[in-house]
From TrEMBL:
Protein's UniProt name: DUF3553 domain-containing protein
Pfam families attached to this UniProt entry: DUF3553
Domain of life of the source: Bacteria
Species lineage: Bacteria, Pseudomonadati, Pseudomonadota, Alphaproteobacteria, Rhodobacterales
Length: 60
């Protein structure tokens, strides 16, 4: 089953709704269901797409 995380590309901004204290994150890579994100308050985190649904942040 595909998830919204599948469309994430390097450079995109995201947040993890389950961890709002991590702050805004920038996608570093998205390979094989593993999304590496550099969060402003938590550093570099590897997220499993099947376990965590990241939310894209669209600039207005």
């Amino acid at each position: 089953m595909r998830s919204l995380n599948d469309m994430l590309e390097p450079g995109m901004l995201v947040k993890n709704p389950a961890q709002p204290d991590w702050g805004l994150g920038q996608v570093q890579s998205n390979i094989g269901g593993k999304v590496t994100v550099n969060f402003e308050n938590a550093g570099k985190i590897v997220v499993q797409s099947e376990r965590v649904a990241l939310e894209p942040v669209w600039n207005s």
